[in-house]
Fold these 2 entries.
Entry 1:
Amino acid sequence: MTIVYDDPDGQTADEVPVRRIKFTINGHKKIAEVEPRLLLSHLIRRGLELTGTHMGCDTTNCGACTVLVDGRPVKSCTMLAVQADGHEISTVEGLATASELHPLQEGFKEEHGLQCGFCTPGMMMAAKALLDDNPDPTEEDVRWALSGNLCRCTGYQNIVKSVLWAAAKLRSE
Amino acid sequence: MFPSRFRYEAPRSLDEAISLLQYGGDYAKVLAGGQSLVPLMKLRFASPELVVDINNVPGLDYHRADPDGTLRIGALCRHVALERSDLLKTTQPTMAAAAPLIADPIVRNRGTLVGSLCHADPQGDWASVVLALGGSVVARGPRGTRTIPLADFVVGPFQNVLEPDEIAIEAAIPAARGIRSGGYLKLERRIGDFATVGVAVAIETSGDSVTRAGIGLTGVGGSTIAATAAAEALVGQPLTPDSIGQAADLAAQAARPRTDHRGSAEYKRHMVRTFVLRILSRADAAEERAA
């Protein structure tokens, strides 16, 4: 795995601080060398080439880059990649298996929970954390849990329906 | 966006963290939740040369009450832990009201109360709450530990009195001598936006009488405002519609809002008054129910 760093300051290669970190992503153990200023979102998208995690606002507002760190939703544009050392990361790619969609993915399909789809990975990861905690959420619980995720297509009604659909499916399994 | 280049250290003890800060001096920053610092670094408003990440220092993620009732919140206690805390729900009405209103649910998973106090954003919610409760920040450095009342800790927008080699290790809220009531109300355009106006009210009553009161204002001045005259007007008498109205007027006078895209100065001042009225009227009703 290679990450190429920008070099605006003309430092020698040895002067660039690099750290080696060990982490788990979607169940796979990884070791990476990262510059401390690399954001977790960049490690995921560029380093691991998992481009399902989207970067929307890049200013901690929109939640498109939401991933789970040790099961808790985190905005990956607002965490340093070095801070993933020793932790478990889950991204949207970890939801489906080779043969089956995750109930959340099915729910978004069944209830038309996406229009452009840009916010969807973040919505699904925030929803996954909710359903892991609370398998039988009310509509209000869902809206509250997703209140840190923005959808610019304003498709919130169907997103909420999709999560409730997934919750019902998961309970019946 | 990404931050400018920095050296990163993740010490495993406070002593180690403090020596790193001694070495880094003015060019070092402590990283806890990172929900304010990382965005600032990405925007290059902050460009520390050394980042001391304290997330691996064990034993800082607590919030607990001492035997004497003092509440202590460790430097790594996340907003989410306070939001879900039964201890806060039963003993700290103002804090319990504020916890779910901090930023948004995802940010609350990482951000910390102590970090928010250190960041000293005039629009930060916790500073008003801790100010209203008469709380302090406990700082540790090479010269030992000191406790700094929040009123002295925040000295301006994004400015606190920590020395470059000191770490804020916890916030302390003094024990109530009477029965605590109060609340926090926040006006925001949408969840996660900065507060247009926030008001924290914390009162203690013994018998009929208010024995201690504190009112903190968010987002209506160059830093967090203690509405001292408004709080003092409540002390020494029962909560009545008159005393509540007087406190609300004085709190509105203490506000120094500016007109911006979130609202006019006049509107913000009006909301300060309304929020004080609402919180205290509820506190009044709660006391009647208890009696």
Entry 2:
Amino acid sequence: MTTTINPYAERVDYGRLRFLHRINPLAKLAAPIPAMVLLILARDVATPVVFFLLGVVLLLIGAHLRPRVLLLVLVLLPLLAGVLSLSFGLWADSSKLPDSTVLLQVGDYQFTTAAWMLGLATSTRLTAIIALSLVAGLTSTGTDLVRAMVQQLRVPYRIGYTALAAFRFVPRFGHELEVIRAAHRVRGMAGGRGPIAGIRRYLGYVVPLLAGAIRHAERVALAMDSRAFGAHPQRTERYVVPFRLRDLVFILLFWAATAAAFVLIPTLELP
Amino acid sequence: MTDTPAPLPLRVDSVRIRHDESTAYTPDGVSFTVSPGEVLLILGPSGSGKSTLALALNGLIPHAIPAELQGTVTVAGANTTETTVGHLSETVSMVFQDPDSQIVTGTLLDEVAFGPENLLVPKAQVLQRAERALRRVGLWERRGENPDTLSGGGRQRLAIACALALGSPVIVLDEPTANLDPVGIEEVYAALAELVAEGDHAIVLVEHNLDAALDLVDRVLVIDRDGHLVLDGPARQTLTENVDRLVELGVWLPVSTLAALRLRTAGIPVDPLPLTPSELTEALNRVELPAPPSTVSAISTMEAAITVTDLNVTRGRSKVLHGVSLDIASGDFLAIVGENGAGKTTLLQAIAGVVRPPRSAVSINGIDPATADVRALSRAIGFVFQNPEHQFIRNTVAEELAHGLEIQHLPQAEIDDAVERMLHRFGLTAHRHQHPFLLSGGQKRRLSVGTALIAGAPVLALDEPTFGQDRERAAELLDMLAQLNADGTTVIVVTHDMQLVADYSSHVAVMREGRLLATDTTAAVLAGDLLEQAGLRHPPLARAMRALRDESWRGIARSADLP
């Protein structure tokens, strides 16, 4: 089983070297946006590889990673890129590809270098975007993100903190769904295989789940009202998530690196 | 009582409330005041509007709940209809029944700080208040933890701390222990007792568990079924002087009081009328007790209907049941008890095939739920889930009942006949075309029992059938189970309610940490210390009797066994 993500985990400071934990979550989200747009548009392999490496290097230096996560970043992501390159390559329309070396032939079908390179371009783009999202994802907490959105983006706190409270619903509904499924199974609703029966089965879970959810949400709302939630336009913030000069510097440096890649990578061709 | 210069924290004046979907006003014309430091208990049969009244005390009615409020509720001099719930919360705070639905943040400290933060209390003071509140309920050391790690009782103490941190002089608690196990109830009342001892908060309590509450209460209000205020006075005096009236009104009296009344009728002078187990013990120790009535212990001679042999169940990577072996005789009423997380529900689900047990670990009259199909299983055992809504799969009450027979491929005439009988038996004939979700709580429960039994299963398994229900609805269900049991159905229940165990079950299986500590007759379990070993408590009557000087009376645990 994977470790469950706790959206309420407190921010931990791992010292100056692990600087990513000290950057404002909004800065970590804003910094890679131009690079991600560029990646969506890029068609070569070099650009995604460069940005993938940028993401990984940033994480290795600036983030405190547990061994399991380190494994994900260093082994599983490249592996994913490799596997996906083959499967994306298989889907490539060979009639539109230039002639190239045939790597594998099964009957009429030819798997060529060109097809593989096309698959590789797609798969590396995907993994590069994942790596860049992990820069923010692995070093920020849900609460800090909500606080930053309320404090800097002026998102109304009623929305932000209600969203955070809603995270509590997720495991609860997971458990409830499990019970409902068991209940329907012992009552003999499992009947039939195949997608249609499956969809019907799931529709049957919706009503009890929704009924429970609405009741629960009403209770939570009453409890929050009773504790003065929404009484004033503002609320006391015990944790300030500041937006400092270093956050700006982080964004600008990231954008500069993105611009440099745009200019310097010779194979980068945009449609 | 009236020597306070400031306006009273809470004044209720001829209040009538009607929910939008209902026609009756309950409560109807209730007036009372709450003075600083006073502990007030609101009693009434179900449907009298106690909880509705509680919701009006901090303005949730009419601000957040669609209901019509007549009369006035005045909180610290302000009319609740003209102030927001947020501002009212500075004077009146609330603790609700369900601990889970009151938690909104990720740590205990954040949770307690949530209220004061909303009130724009400066940061340093928020922390001060949070620390004070958490210390008062004994949770300060755990401030960094996620509230999910607390037990039910712990979460309810946290809710009390949250109310304290708001700094309000009045705390309203609406059925705060209805969802808790015996130890959780004890925890919550220990925390409340400390508050009462300090005397700086007025407390308004809506509670059916009088045995735990009465030690703390100064004053009781009694509302009748029509929502009228019928009694208001000092707790002890009001209860003891109006016992007959209260019984007539359908108010649940403490178990100890009911036992004493029964003993008085039998000619044993119990005086003064006790309200708590320790008072009953004292009163009985003062009199010469006759020989106790001989209790006919139901020793089942029937052969085992269900055998469980070395049952192990793992969930994910953790083992939740460790080698459980158990025989349940045909006609038994077995209660499975244990703390939260002891594996009670898992055991019940494995027996009934709701979670698949390993092969040949369970046999229900020769059927192995590990391999049996739904049809065979539903003829062998019926399962009632904690929340009846979870098991409803059809669109009308009649279809819901018919479903269990349709999967048996019985002829239509036979199905119609059986459905008709079930509808009649469970009082649902008038609701046959209704959607099961639109039934009342008690009707839903009856329907779920009906669906479990319709395929002719001789065994009925129920998971926490009285959880979160008021006393009256719980009693209605239990009497129905007792009737089924008397007619020959083997009943297995998982429960936290020890008085239920004492009054209804013939046998008890005690679980702790995934292991079965013992199975024995209810009388034997209540006479020994197994319950304490399992982290549970004896029910009130057993507690009173076990402390008696007269040894021959110590084994009595159920009201039915009293003379």
